[in-house]
C-alpha cells in the first residue's frame, strides 16, 4: 500500500511558529540560564531527548523532571490554544485516502500532546497510523518512528513519502529509506540537500504529493 507520512509540528499544524519564541523566552532561561541556545538546534527532537542534548552541550540548571514540567506547560498552550491546522489539510487527508493512499502521523511529540491536537482539530481516528517517538526506542533523527509507521501501515519504504519541516525529521525519513518532501510552510529551517524537494505552502504540497503517486 502506498503511504504518506506527515510530521505534526510545522506540517499538519503551525506549532513551529511558536516553539522557538517560547523556548527562548520561557524554557532555556531556566534550563540553561545565561547560555545562548538556538532553538533550531533542537527542532524536530523529542522533548526528553532535548534535555539530553542540552545536558551534553550546555550547563543545565534543572533536573529532567523540571524540564519535562516546563516543556509540557508550553506544549499544552501551543497545541491547545495557539496553533492552527494547515489550510486544506482535512481535504488533503480525505483525498489521499480516497485514492487508496494510507496516511500516517509520525511525530516526536508524546501521545498526550498528539491527542490534544487530534481532538481540537477533529482528526481523531482519521489517520491510518499514529506513531510517537515515545512508542519506539529512539526518536528522530533515528529511523525508528518511520519504520514503526511503515510496519503499522503494511507499507514498503519505496512506496512511501514523508513530509517534514526539519532536517532532523528528514534525516529520520532518509534513514528509513523513505522519500522526503521538505515543507516550508512555517519556516525555512530544513536543509534542501537532505530532501527530494522543498515545497512552500499547502497548495504546492498537495500538488507535489499527488505527483509522487502518478
UniProtKB/TrEMBL annotation:
The keyword Repeat does not apply. One of its GO terms (molecular function) is metal ion binding. Keywords: Carbohydrate metabolism, Hydrolase, Magnesium, Metal-binding. Its cofactor is Mg(2+). The keyword Transmembrane helix does not apply. It holds the Pfam family HAD_2. It comes from the Archaea. SUPFAM superfamilies: HAD-like. Belongs to the HAD-like hydrolase superfamily. This is HAD superfamily hydrolase.
